[in-house]
Amino acid sequence: MAINWFPGHMAKTRRxxxxxxxxxxxxxxxxxxxxxxxxxxPDIDDICGTKPRIIxxxxxxxxxxKITREWIKTLSKxxxxxxxxxxxxxxxxxxxxxxxxxxxKEKHERMKTKGIVNITDRVxxxxxxxxxxxxxxxxxxxxxxxxxxxxxxVTKSRRxxxxxxxxxxxxxxxxxWPKLESExxxxxxAFTGAIKDEIMDIEELALKLIEILxxxxxxRLMERYKLKELSETPLENMDNIGRKRGAVISKGEIDYNRxxxxxxxxxxxxxxxxxxxETPLK
Length: 282
Prior knowledge:
It is a single chain. 39% of the residues lie in helices and 13% in strands. By secondary structure, it is an alpha/beta fold. It has two domains: 177 residues, P-loop containing nucleotide triphosphate hydrolases (Rossmann fold, 3-Layer(aba) Sandwich), CATH 3.40.50; 68 residues, Conserved Hypothetical Protein Ylqf, Chain: A, domain 2 (Orthogonal Bundle), CATH 1.10.1580.10. A six-stranded mixed β-sheet has the order 4-3-2-5-7-6, sandwiched between helices. The chain has a two-stranded antiparallel ribbon with strand order 1-8. A hairpin with a 4-residue loop joins β6 and β7. Required for a late step of 50S ribosomal subunit assembly. Has GTPase activity. GO terms for molecular function: GTP binding; GTPase activity; RNA binding.
């Protein structure tokens, strides 16, 4: 079933992005390195057109290096450059200025011929909710001017933020697209917190995550929860994880809600290990 989650401020933001494109020289699009495909708003390509773009694969410390490098190779084009970054620590962000200078080389040369030396590039920052836009802006601006939080939808309006590296940033609220028709996309966005936990059943979500991990990352699942072996079904593995963590209520029953909350928190915090839920091929 398709999820419809398109609050009014998101529809407004999509209109504003289109209207404000003429005010900026380039776009910085932030995605989650663990779910590069799912964290791309498919409307972005149409909205942004041929405007120079830098794609930042944020939270790359939580994804597999090899797969992230494959994504960088796949997504890179003449007018699109891709960097893997960590917007919390700032790792990888120093490369943005050099990449932007290269993308806007012709513009800079024109301005220099007119005698303009101190050039400020205006850049729009876009991305889905909870992908790290505010953390990126705060790190680059070296302040806490943009609100941050682990709940999607913190930023509600456009604003301009000055930096000390010759870039002026236009912040925009995170936007999803009107319908999330792909079940894989729904789950991936929910796993990483881009969709509010209240939108989907958290126990079903945890079961699906266990199913993926037992198929693709069995060793990490066993190591994190001290399981000697994995059972065949996600439910049995969820039971075993609950027992190992003491999430047991009366008569030996498992507190599934407690296990689900714990599992999702630990996945989102990288405690289960570096995990990429999507590859360029799948």
